[in-house]
Specification:
This protein has 82 residues and is mainly β. Helices cover 0% and strands 52% of the residues.
Length: 82
Protein backbone atom coordinates (compact mmCIF):
# COMPACT_ATOMS: atom_id res chain seq x y z
CA UNK A 1 0.00 0.00 0.00
CA UNK A 2 1.30 3.43 -0.97
CA UNK A 3 -0.05 6.90 -0.22
CA UNK A 4 1.60 9.66 -2.23
CA UNK A 5 1.04 13.05 -3.75
CA UNK A 6 1.59 16.73 -3.17
CA UNK A 7 -0.99 17.01 -0.38
CA UNK A 8 -1.10 16.26 3.33
CA UNK A 9 -3.52 14.43 5.60
CA UNK A 10 -4.45 14.86 9.25
CA UNK A 11 -5.09 11.17 9.75
CA UNK A 12 -4.15 7.96 7.92
CA UNK A 13 -5.84 4.77 9.13
CA UNK A 14 -5.01 1.35 7.72
CA UNK A 15 -5.76 -2.29 8.36
CA UNK A 16 -3.97 -5.36 7.03
CA UNK A 17 -5.23 -8.94 7.41
CA UNK A 18 -4.40 -10.36 10.82
CA UNK A 19 -3.32 -6.98 12.25
CA UNK A 20 -4.94 -4.36 14.44
CA UNK A 21 -6.18 -1.16 12.82
CA UNK A 22 -3.53 1.56 13.05
CA UNK A 23 -3.98 5.33 12.88
CA UNK A 24 -1.21 7.83 12.20
CA UNK A 25 -1.70 11.55 12.78
CA UNK A 26 -0.03 13.94 10.31
CA UNK A 27 2.02 11.14 8.71
CA UNK A 28 5.09 11.82 6.61
CA UNK A 29 4.32 11.27 2.93
CA UNK A 30 4.91 9.33 0.79
CA UNK A 31 3.83 6.49 3.11
CA UNK A 32 4.39 2.85 2.20
CA UNK A 33 3.47 -0.29 4.11
CA UNK A 34 3.63 -3.94 3.09
CA UNK A 35 1.59 -6.87 4.40
CA UNK A 36 2.11 -10.57 3.81
CA UNK A 37 -1.25 -12.18 4.56
CA UNK A 38 -4.21 -12.58 2.24
CA UNK A 39 -7.49 -10.88 3.09
CA UNK A 40 -8.87 -7.35 3.08
CA UNK A 41 -6.65 -4.25 3.04
CA UNK A 42 -8.33 -0.96 3.99
CA UNK A 43 -6.86 2.55 3.91
CA UNK A 44 -8.67 5.77 4.95
CA UNK A 45 -7.38 9.32 4.85
CA UNK A 46 -9.17 12.13 6.66
CA UNK A 47 -8.44 15.85 6.66
CA UNK A 48 -6.87 15.74 3.21
CA UNK A 49 -5.42 18.97 1.84
CA UNK A 50 -4.16 19.05 -1.71
CA UNK A 51 -3.90 15.97 -3.92
CA UNK A 52 -3.22 12.49 -2.55
CA UNK A 53 -3.44 9.06 -4.13
CA UNK A 54 -3.80 5.73 -2.36
CA UNK A 55 -2.61 2.63 -4.23
CA UNK A 56 -2.92 -1.02 -3.27
CA UNK A 57 -0.33 -3.21 -4.98
CA UNK A 58 -0.41 -7.02 -4.98
CA UNK A 59 2.53 -9.00 -6.40
CA UNK A 60 3.84 -5.90 -8.17
CA UNK A 61 0.48 -5.13 -9.82
CA UNK A 62 -1.67 -2.17 -8.86
CA UNK A 63 -5.12 -3.54 -8.05
CA UNK A 64 -6.77 -0.42 -6.62
CA UNK A 65 -6.17 3.31 -6.82
CA UNK A 66 -8.10 6.30 -5.55
CA UNK A 67 -7.23 10.01 -5.72
CA UNK A 68 -8.57 13.02 -3.84
CA UNK A 69 -8.13 16.37 -5.55
CA UNK A 70 -10.76 18.28 -3.58
CA UNK A 71 -9.64 17.77 0.00
CA UNK A 72 -12.38 15.20 0.56
CA UNK A 73 -11.78 12.11 2.70
CA UNK A 74 -10.20 9.31 0.70
CA UNK A 75 -10.42 5.55 1.03
CA UNK A 76 -9.42 2.49 -0.89
CA UNK A 77 -9.71 -1.18 -0.11
CA UNK A 78 -9.08 -4.51 -1.74
CA UNK A 79 -9.90 -8.08 -0.75
CA UNK A 80 -7.39 -10.76 -1.65
CA UNK A 81 -8.66 -14.34 -1.80
CA UNK A 82 -7.90 -16.28 1.35
Amino acid sequence: MVVEGTGTTDRLTYTFPGEEERTLRNPDLPFERMGKRRGRVVVRLEGVRGELTCKIIVNGRQVRSSTSRTGAALSCDHSMAV
